[in-house]
Amino acid sequence: MAPLLEIDHLTITVPTPGGPRPVVRELTCHLDAGEIVGLVGVSGAGKSLTALAVTGLLPDGVEVAAGRVLLEGRDLLTLSEPEIRRIRGRRIAMVFQDPSTALNPTFTVGFQVIEAIRTHDRSIGRAEARRQAVELLRRVALPDADRRLSSYPHELSGGQRQRVVLAGALACRPDVLLADEPTTALDVTTQAQILDLLESLRRDLGLAVLLITHDLPVVAETCDRVLVLEEGKIVEEGPVAEVFLHPARRHTRELLAAAAALSIDRLPPAAGAPEGAAP
Amino acid sequence: MTGPEPLLEARGLVKSFPLPGAPVLDRLRGRTELVRAVDGVDLRLEAGECLAVVGESGSGKTTLGRCLLRLVEPDAGSVRFQGEELRGLSSSALRRRRRRFQMVFQDPQESLNPRMRLGQIIAEPLAAHGIVPPGDRRHRLLELLELVGLDADAVDRYPHQFSGGQRQRIGIARALATEPELLVADEPVSALDLLSQAQVIRLMRDLQRRLGLGVLFIAHDLAAVAKLADRVAVMHRGRIVEEAPTEEIFVRPSHPYTTELLRAIPRLHPGNRRRPTGTGAPGGAPGTPSGGPERSSS
Fold first, then answer.
1. pLDDT, tens only, A223-272
2. What is the rounded distance in angstroms from the CA atom of residue B292 to the CA atom of residue B59?
3. Residue range B15-43, pLDDT digits in tens
């Protein structure tokens, strides 16, 4: 069976005075239904651009130079703008680090979630969309979902805002969620709740999640597989336990050593990096 | 060595702010509800010691740090630095003391003047406090750069020419320029990338030990302070709910809020997950979470 989402030798270039420079290089990976896969690397490694390329949202000048992005075998990169717009949201949703920028401050939470539901299916009436919005907000465990419909984003905490963003992203029952540092701006207790939520969405809805992060403990907690990105290339991939406990590549060991210096638990010596291991 | 006086001691520190969103007129008439950002904090830091103040957003930890250095004026309470009460000092007297306690900020991008070369940035406090004769400043500058692991040729560059981690090194070098006895670092690594975070934490630990600095490390992340702090104070809603030696906090947290914080921290060892994973359990998964964690999963 073909994977749900497949990225095949994707190369992305950014413009420079000396001509286009590749920042993602022949990246190949896949995502199956019900799977949470971590894409890790330092800033600038190409994590976010990869996700933006999948949804056709690359900034001006940044281009896919080669490769394919297949959703159930269909190449998204060859689609017209209206076609890719239908895929975006309906099949593939994205959430970003900062939930406040993803919400419009001048509209209520309810309006925005209802809008997300109706944008993709105009046949849904207002009352029905409202009912679905409450259901979605309950699904993402927003306290007082009913009453929150009339709240504005600034009246919510960061964690609540991220729940609303997730509700909006889930409005059209996507198959794939691309989550770019979804918990980085949140407190640790809120982060744990959002990660639990991702886990339950995968379990109950079979959602496939690509979790983009530099936070290795978050990957250890949440992901089935991990892809390690270095300068636009996947240098190592595999089941999380295998990669974290028996890293094969220098860069993976370097990242793990840095994470270990900032972590409250340890990895066995086999995973330890030669340099700078913390006492 | 200093005498029996602690380096820094706060007692009954209080700072309130008007609740955001209150009507302006009410605020002007002083008729608004107040939130106590810092609500009766006692705290003690010995010379050469690193104390971490950990709390989530809105816990009051940043306000506390600012009150301690009188960057924000507390409403009540006492702050003593080496036995001397800082509250009530005139601004000029306070300014003279400032060379002995310095601050490192979260975002080095925001706290460095983009139009000044690195040399000027670091030399500015030297000139302001008049502590190094002009002829010796260059020498001191290079010494400071070496201390934080920056090359001498960095002197002529501008802040934007450095990475985030390097900029934080610059922020630390600037803070150390006046040879302070106390450094208050407010989230010094949370804006940095993973590799830089680990490096800056290591640098701060080395400097703290080498220079015998007292460090007050303010952070939202218990994990980040684990390797640096001698003691940890957990802050919640303006109060310190628990304070103990670092190991103690991790092994035997006594306050339910600390326990909750600890439980929420993701573990690096895949065998220590807080919850079992549903699908896709990988082949060679470790059977037991016994890979040397300080705490087992709950």
1. 999 999 999 999 999 999 999 999 999 999 999 999 998 888 888 876 65
2. 32
3. 998 766 656 666 667 666 788 999 999 99
Domain ranges of chain B: 8-112+175-264
Q: How far apart are the first and last CA of chain A?
A: 47
Cβ pair A192:B221 closer than 8 A: no
> What's the rounded Cα separation, in Å, for the pair B9 and B15?
16
Strands B214-219 and B231-236: unpaired
What does the pLDDT look like over B103-120, one tens digit per residue? 998 877 778 889 999 999
Q: Which residue of A has its CA nearest to B275?
A: A221
- With 0-12 / 13-18 / 19 or more C-beta atoms within 10 angstroms meaning exposed / middle / buried, residue A122 is exposed
User: Is A96 within 8 Å of chain B by CB?
Assistant: no
For A265, which of B197, B222, B269 is closest by C-beta distance? B269
* A205 and B CB contact within 8 Å: no
What pLDDT is recorded for position B186? Answer: 93
A115 CB near a chain B CB, below 8 Å?
A: no
Superfamily of domain B8-112+175-264: P-loop containing nucleotide triphosphate hydrolases (3.40.50.300)
- Alpha carbons A2 and A19: distance in angstroms, whole number: 36
Q: What is the mean pLDDT of residues B180-188?
A: 94
Hey, what domains does chain A have and what are their CATH numbers?
28-60+74-91+177-274 (3.40.50.300), 99-173 (no CATH)
Interchain proximity A262–B198, CB inside 8 Å = yes
Q: How is residue B7 written in tokens?
A: 């380096």
- In angstroms, the separation between the Cα of residue A233 and the nearest Cα of chain B is 18
